[in-house]
């Protein structure tokens, strides 16, 4: 067996569906039926998971550090809100795609700014773009509703058939379907040769360029795709909550997003999903203990995670599950330890 | 005409203030290559220390200012020795996460201790009001800021350029390995510089309560301004951040005055354009380190 077919063989093995993954999605679906009173928070988690997956695509796979990912979330949110409010695109699924495309266009346009420069410049530029959009949204308050936000959004039934109900049941299953479809696509992307080339770029851009990977084009492509995902997440936010306000662009949203991803682990798609669940749980827990000061404990979690070291932490967390899996399945652990980070 | 001059004056005062607030960050971020998003928290600490001393304990304003410096510097050196120094070699992502965490903690902690509303420091009567010079309104407080910050800037420049410590710092920054080979205690130099930068931020925080407003969200609100000063100004000298602060101060005041609705827009656009045009900052060195 020569080297290239060997690589292909391993890549395909990696890309195969594991039992654990199937079980994961079955559990998620079961949650929808098991907790009918918790639709709102579960929808919130799904949205956050999608948004985090978007950041994971650029941070975990391509190594682009972004402090302004909320920019795309916000554009998606406002686009969906405006489309519904003015009745331009009434059908939610279509509006969702249009909103995603709007964010995607912005992502493509700004990707040229982001791929220039080093980490620090990227941080600044992404942060600057998010702040710029927030300032713009405030400036054009006749369109965006300013600090009051967009109000009076009424969502039409999905496909003209399924109306949104007040308990959020439709919203939940709608979000779940969107998340799952986009997850399938992201999974396909990261296991494709394109996704592997991104990992090469992340590990060493210079070497990646030397073996013939067009670094800048790949980065632009993944950044644009991530912007699309973030836009969809934002649009879901507007469609399921029927509001869009200035805080969709807020710095805290981008910062929280990083925390979610770091809790879940970067560089594997389930990181965002798991992180979103844990983050919301933590947030609920902290805000029941101290309603006003939960941010302190979130900050403490961040500091502790960094001080312990993210990789070491994930090894600890995965130690017991891997032990069980080894006992049961008798082979190499299914749950992967995320790769080293940017 | 006079309104232009008044705005210019206010802008210069604002810029000077930003410089004192941010020049510590210029060292950590520009020279030590550590992304410290929590820099504003040290400024806030200084501001609140000054507020408590003046308002609650009746200290004179000018006696409280040095204490704001000292307390922020003390917090700075404590954190540097216990936490920050472990992170110098870590990735930028880790540094960002860590310092965002610290910022969140500081915001919530100050909110818990002092409440979430904006606080004011009682100023002595001598600093209130303004007087006219050839029809140009000069605020006494702003004049004092310009004087203090101007003196500090000159002092810093002299320390960096003329003293033994200054040359050690420059050596440590240019090439830490070679510097430590020459017997310079690089971690110590960095720790001292970090603490001094935090102290300056604390002093700036105390001075800025009147102009920028002091509340628990100070570190988040002004983080972007500090970052702009450093990234636009570059880090090769103290002049770069200084000029960048003045530019930012004047630009922001003028923007808010003449195009009130476009105020922040102007600043952010300027920053992005400059970063695209000169990724190492307007006055930075051309070679990436």
Structural class of chain B: mainly alpha
Radius of gyration of chain A: 20 Å
Tell how many strands the DSSP assignment of chain B holds: 2
Low-confidence stretches of chain B: none
The helix content of chain B is: over 70%
Notes on the protein architecture:
With 342 residues, chain A is mainly α. Helix content of chain A is 74%, strand content 0%. In chain A, helix 3 packs antiparallel against helix 11 (215-241) and helix 5 packs antiparallel against helix 11 (215-241). Chain A is globular and about 60 Å long. The model of chain A is unreliable at 337-342 (pLDDT under 50). Chain B is an all-alpha fold. A two-stranded antiparallel sheet of chain B has the order 1-2. In chain B, helix 2 runs antiparallel to helix 3 (61-82). The longest helix of chain B has 30 residues, at 2-31. At the A-B interface, helix 6, helix 12 and helix 14 of A face helix 4, helix 9 and helix 11 of B.
Describe what is shown at a glance.
Chain A is mainly alpha-helical and about 350 residues long. Chain A has helices at about 5-15, 20-35, 40-60, 70-85, 90-115, 120-140, 140-145, 170-190, 195-205, 205-210, 215-240, 250-265, 270-290, 295-310, 310-330.
Write the SSE topology.
The complex is a heterodimer of chains A (342) and B (289).
Chain A: H1 3-15, H2 19-34, H3 39-61, H4 70-85, H5 92-114, H6 119-139, H7 141-144, H8 169-191, H9 193-203, H10 205-210, H11 215-241, H12 251-264, H13 270-289, H14 294-308, H15 310-329
Chain B: H1 2-31, H2 39-56, H3 61-82, H4 92-114, E1 130-133, E2 136-139, H5 140-162, H6 164-174, H7 176-181, H8 186-208, H9 218-233, H10 239-258, H11 263-277
Antiparallel strand pairs in B: 1-2
Helix pairs in contact in B: 1-5, 1-8, 1-9, 1-10, 2-3, 2-4, 2-8, 2-9, 3-8, 5-6, 6-8, 9-10, 10-11
């Amino acid at each position: 067996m020569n080297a290239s077919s060997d690589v292909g063989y391993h890549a395909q093995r990696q890309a195969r569906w594991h039992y654990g993954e199937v079980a994961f999605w079955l559990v998620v679906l079961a949650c929808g039926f098991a907790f009918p009173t918790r639709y709102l928070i579960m929808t919130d988690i799904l949205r956050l998971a999608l948004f985090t997956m978007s950041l994971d695509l650029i941070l975990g796979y391509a190594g682009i550090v972004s402090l302004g990912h909320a920019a795309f979330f916000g554009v998606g949110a406002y686009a969906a809100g405006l489309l519904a409010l003015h009745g331009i695109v009434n059908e939610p699924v279509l509006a969702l795609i249009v909103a995603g495309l709007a964010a995607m266009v912005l992502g493509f346009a700004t990707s040229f700014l982001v791929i220039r420069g080093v980490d620090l410049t990227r941080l600044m530029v992404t942060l600057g773009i998010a702040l710029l959009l927030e300032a713009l949204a405030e400036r054009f308050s006749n369109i965006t509703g300013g600090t009051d936000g967009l109000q009076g959004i009424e969502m039409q039934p999905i496909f003209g058939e399924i109306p949104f109900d007040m308990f959020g049941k439709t919203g939940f299953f709608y979000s779940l379907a969107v998340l799952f479809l986009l997850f399938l696509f992201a999974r396909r992307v990261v296991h494709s040769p394109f996704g592997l080339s991104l990992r090469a770029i992340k590990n060493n851009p210079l070497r990646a360029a030397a073996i013939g990977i067009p670094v800048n084009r790949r980065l632009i492509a993944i950044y644009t795709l991530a912007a699309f995902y973030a836009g969809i997440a934002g649009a879901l936010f507007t469609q399921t909550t029927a509001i869009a306000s200035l805080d969709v662009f807020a710095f805290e949203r981008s910062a929280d997003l990083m925390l979610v991803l770091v809790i879940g682990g970067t560089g594997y798609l389930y990181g965002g999903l798991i992180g979103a669940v844990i983050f919301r749980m933590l947030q609920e827990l902290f805000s029941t203990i101290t309603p006003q000061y939960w941010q302190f404990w979130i900050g403490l979690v961040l500091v502790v995670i960094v001080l312990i070291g993210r990789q070491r932490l994930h090894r600890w967390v995965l130690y017991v599950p891997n032990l069980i899996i080894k006992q049961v399945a008798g082979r190499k652990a299914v749950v992967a330890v995320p790769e080293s980070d940017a | 005409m006079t309104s232009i001059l008044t705005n210019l004056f206010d802008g210069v005062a604002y810029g000077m203030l930003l410089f004192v607030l941010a020049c510590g960050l210029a060292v950590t971020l520009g020279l030590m290559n550590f992304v410290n998003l929590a820099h504003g928290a040290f400024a806030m600490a200084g501001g609140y220390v000054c507020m408590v001393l003046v308002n609650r304990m009746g200290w004179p304003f000018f006696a409280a200012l040095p204490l704001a410096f000292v307390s922020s510097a003390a917090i700075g050196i404590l954190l540097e020795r216990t936490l920050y120094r472990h992170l110098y070699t870590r990735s930028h992502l880790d540094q960002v996460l860590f310092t965002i965490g610290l910022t969140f903690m500081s915001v919530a902690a100050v909110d818990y201790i002092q409440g979430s509303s904006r606080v004011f420091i009682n100023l002595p009567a001598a600093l209130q009001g303004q007087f006219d010079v050839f029809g140009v309104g000069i605020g006494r407080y702003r004049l004092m800021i310009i004087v203090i910050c101007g003196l500090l800037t000159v002092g810093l420049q002299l320390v960096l350029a003329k003293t033994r410590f200054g040359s050690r710092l420059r050596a440590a920054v240019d090439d830490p390995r070679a510097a430590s080979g020459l017997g310079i205690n690089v971690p110590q130099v960095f720790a001292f510089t970090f603490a001094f930068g935090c102290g300056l931020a604390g002093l700036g925080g105390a001075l800025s309560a009147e102009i920028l407003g002091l509340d628990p969200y100070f570190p988040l609100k002004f983080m972007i301004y500090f970052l702009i000063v450093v990234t636009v100004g570059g880090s090769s000298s103290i002049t770069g951040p200084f000029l960048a602060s003045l530019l930012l101060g004047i630009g922001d005041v003028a923007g808010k005055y003449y195009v009130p609705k476009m105020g922040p827009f102007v600043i952010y656009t300027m920053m992005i354009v400059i970063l695209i045009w000169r990724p190492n900052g307007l006055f930075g060195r051309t070679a990436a380190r």
